[in-house]
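Structure (tokenized):
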């Protein structure tokens, strides 16, 4: 089974992935942040590096999905391949930070890849307001995230909501992240685990 966690920057995906991996004994696949050769450059000059970054993520997530299918066990994934294509890349394009030529090139490649893969059996969407995102981004203190603008996070949230509304490739569970403190409240985690159990039992 393939479970994935979707959500904006700072919504708590990595934390929840780790906690659920431990609880269910699922193999965790995390987003490649520390070894990403483009992130620092991207946040310094988004227009110059947006296409490179999105191609890197597309390649990285495609490889993850291949590994997940080969593994033959239940895997929980931190962020999906769909978020780059339907949220991050179009947002960069609409903000004038990715050219139409590059965006069309990227999206053609994504369409080819998406035709070859199976979507997750269950997606958990962490819905978080901009103040929650900002608070969690500041708390984790990643240097390259210091320059993230509020309007950038707001635009991403709007695109997430549009994507969630239209998503029809499989089961989705929406988690209101503003109301949960997973690292410090075991009751909050238990509540979400109960919801996941109900969804998973409905898969079989």
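Design, position by position:
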């Amino acid at each position: 089974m393939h479970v994935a966690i979707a959500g904006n920057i700072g919504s708590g995906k990595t934390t929840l992935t780790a906690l659920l991996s431990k609880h269910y004994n699922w193999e965790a696949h995390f987003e490649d942040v520390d070894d990403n050769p483009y992130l620092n450059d991207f946040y310094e000059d988004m227009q110059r590096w947006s296409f490179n970054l999105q191609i890197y993520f597309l390649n990285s997530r495609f490889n993850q999905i291949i590994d997940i299918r080969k593994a033959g066990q239940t895997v929980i994934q931190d962020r999906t391949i769909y978020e780059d294509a339907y949220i991050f890349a179009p947002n960069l394009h609409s903000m004038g930070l990715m050219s139409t030529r590059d965006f069309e090139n990227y999206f053609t490649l994504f369409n080819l890849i998406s035709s070859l893969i199976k979507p997750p059996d269950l997606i958990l969407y962490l819905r978080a307001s901009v103040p929650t995102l900002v608070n969690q981004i500041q708390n984790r203190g990643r240097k390259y995230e210091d320059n993230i603008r509020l309007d950038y996070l707001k635009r991403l949230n709007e695109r997430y909501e549009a994507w969630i509304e239209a998503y029809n490739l499989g089961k989705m569970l929406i988690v209101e992240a503003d109301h949960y403190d997973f690292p410090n409240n075991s009751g909050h985690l238990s509540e979400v685990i109960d919801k996941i159990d109900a969804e998973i039992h409905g898969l079989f």
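Reviewer-requested clarification: The helical segments are 13-24, 39-44, 46-71, 81-94, 100-114, 130-140, 150-166, 186-201. The beta strands are 2-7, 27-29, 75-78, 122-127, 171-176.
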